[in-house]
From TrEMBL:
Belongs to the class-II aminoacyl-tRNA synthetase family. PANTHER family: HISTIDINE--TRNA LIGASE, MITOCHONDRIAL-RELATED, HISTIDYL-TRNA SYNTHETASE. GO terms for cellular component: cytoplasm. This is histidine--tRNA ligase. Its EC number is 6.1.1.21. SUPFAM superfamilies: Class II aaRS ABD-related, Class II aaRS and biotin synthetases.
Amino acid sequence: MKFEKIQAPKGVREYLPPESSAFDWVRTQLIAPAAAAGYQLMELPVFEDTNLFTRGVGESTDVVSKEMYTFEDRGGRSITLRPEGTAGVMRAVIENNLDRGQLPVKVWYSGQFFRAERPQAGRYRQFYQVGIEAIGVEDPAIDAEVIAIADRGFKNLGLKNYRLDITSLGDAASRAAHRVDLMKFIGTLNLDEATAARAALNPLRLFDDKRPEMQEAMKAAPLLMDYLSAESSANFTQVLKYLDALKISYVLNPRMVRGLDYYTGTTFEFVHSDLGAQAGIGGGGRYDGLMETLGGQSLSGIGFGLGVDRALLAAVAEKSLPQEQFTSDLFIIPLGDDAMTTALITAQELRAIGIKTEIAFGDRSLKGAMKGADKSGAQYVVVFGESELSSGVVNLKRMRDGDTSSVKIAQLKDVLRETLSR
Ligand code: HAM
């Protein structure tokens, strides 16, 4: 009987060797600046109570209304695969009283997120984000620091072709004043039922409507930026001053609407120019009412989520991936059982001091093993044969140019450490 092959679900992104090492590198580099700034890891469940997202992220959003993977678990509870990370962080902070200790609570996370979107290049149904959240301090300096951490992550990848879009959604008073005029303006438009319903939940959503006729209609709409209260305006100006001081350039984009409803105050998006339609490589902002909405105290917060899949695509497009990072330093080819024992011991010693070492396994010919060494991309190759074992000396071959040198097995460690550090 022949079984049918099973395929991965539609729209999921997998990373297999050799690409997976590039993915791993991108993810590590992107989030490294968070730890350097004192953010600590939070590992959270990938599924949560559905209410967390309907209430936290907002029902006017596509993310909640169209894209959630929601199901009933065996106990009849409504469960949703997390479409984003901020709501879960808030839930965990409130549930574990982290907000009763030292503020701000500063955390980072990394993992899979799920949105039932139409798959295309750079847009997946399971994708990866790294993110940070800083909760409990209202200070424009922390807004600037959060943005600077994201920017440093992209710079770590060697990216250049991106820009930072920024705006402010102001405080509650600013948004209330703007809403009155925006609703008046929207009342003059001829909207279909679904759009009108969306506008009633969150009128700002209409700025995000991609249909050309809506884009055209919204050109004359009043902008929130013109309604900022004196305090919100002063705050935002200060954020921009800090960014100037940090030499982080930005583009003011008062029409920017993020896809999640919790945003207030400073909001931003990083946009890459080589990625086509799915150009957003990261985004974030303040969410000053979120904690209260989720049953906690009234504390402010700010954070970002960076798309690891898209950052990798951007690094590929800009050819900024360091190729040599992903290959071994040494490939050992043992011939026979005794040689294998020596190879295992030697490899263990070399790996312990950080020299990436591979061994040719299985009963292969020398020719076959050399092919394996070639394919591995290792920088150096040694053969452990009978004569090498009895003399204790091997030929260390540099694959780049075939250059060989005689080295005592006992001294491989020192010789490699020396040549690899050059
Ligand atoms: P977001 O803008 O929805 O924000 O997602 C952040 C990033 O995740 C996007 O800029 C994009 O790079 C990536 N991304 C989103 N959806 C997909 C997808 N379907 N396929 C591939 N990549 C995707 C948030 O999720 C907020 N939680 C960020 C945040 C944290 N705001 C405050 N704190």
